[in-house]
Design goal:
single chain, about 260 residues, mainly beta, Neuraminidase, 4-stranded antiparallel beta sheet, 3 helices, 23 strands, about 10% helix, disordered N terminus
Length: about 260
């Protein structure tokens, strides 16, 4: 056997031995059949995969961990989107971030972590309004977006004792629209920007005060992955918005298909 033939055979054997390649995990999203599912893909080419749950109220996932709320439970999920723990949580309403859940009925803030769950109560008078979004968890702190009448406020909460350590009035277009209809799931807080769902566009406002808009109708936003926000619309298809350091770009999600 000559050298060329040996090389060809080695290449064929190597190819057979390689595991089947698959697209990377983008995040999690709710399909057109109202199932929360794992989504793989990049740059707008998405494939639906495993079902995480049905009859989902809300969810938040940052690519490493996340929380999913059903009518009766709070699920913690890992980096692959699979459920890790199921916690009883019968309260109908919850505001989520990937590691925290706020329950308006009891003013309790739950946090999840490697050592389990912690719960603290926050004085309703200190909040002084309706919590509509949670920011990412920091060491001993969580940011709450609160509507007081028609005014948006960002409160920093010390998670060791439930006290308010800072209050900010963000201003801008998002502050002017966020509390007109304080429905859960309309605002997402990221470390460097906010996104708000409106009937005509998704509004974006950076920490530096730069404002942009994405011209798609939106009724619900959810943190869907490390770089992704899912956008649901009452009048059109769902989208995924990819977040980069200086921009946002929307891609349409495909219609749900049967699992492979």
């Amino acid at each position: 056997m000559n050298r060329a033939a040996v090389i060809v055979l080695l290449c064929v054997a190597s190819a057979v031995a390689q595991p089947k390649l698959s697209a990377p995990l983008a995040g999690i999203a709710r399909d057109s059949n109202q199932q929360l599912r794992v989504v793989h893909g990049v740059s707008g080419t998405f494939v639906w995969h495993d079902v995480i749950g049905e009859s989902i109220v809300d969810w938040a996932f940052d690519g490493n961990c996340g929380l999913v709320k059903t009518a009766t439970e709070l699920l913690t999920i890992g980096a692959n989107g699979a459920a890790i723990r199921y916690l009883p949580a019968a309260q109908p309403e919850a505001v989520l971030s990937p590691q925290s859940a706020f329950f308006p009925a009891t003013h309790e803030l739950w946090q999840t972590g490697p050592k389990g769950e912690t719960k603290i109560s926050i004085d309703s008078e200190m909040i002084g309004g309706s919590v509509i979004a949670l920011g990412s968890t920091k060491p001993h702190g969580v940011q709450l977006a609160v509507c007081r009448a028609k005014a948006l406020r960002l409160l920093s909460v010390d998670t060791t004792n439930g006290s308010i350590t800072q209050e900010l009035a963000p201003g801008g277009a998002i502050a002017g629209h966020a509390c007109l209809s304080a429905g859960g799931g309309s605002l997402v807080l990221l470390p460097d920007r906010m996104l708000l769902a409106t009937a005509h566009a998704v509004l974006v406002q950076t920490a530096a005060g730069i404002e942009r808009s994405i011209p798609i109708s939106a009724s619900h936003l959810a943190r869907a992955g490390e770089q992704w926000i899912e956008v649901e619309s009452a009048t059109g298809p769902a989208h995924m918005i990819r977040i980069t350091s200086d921009a946002e770009k929307a891609y349409q999600l495909p219609a749900a298909k049967e699992l492979p």
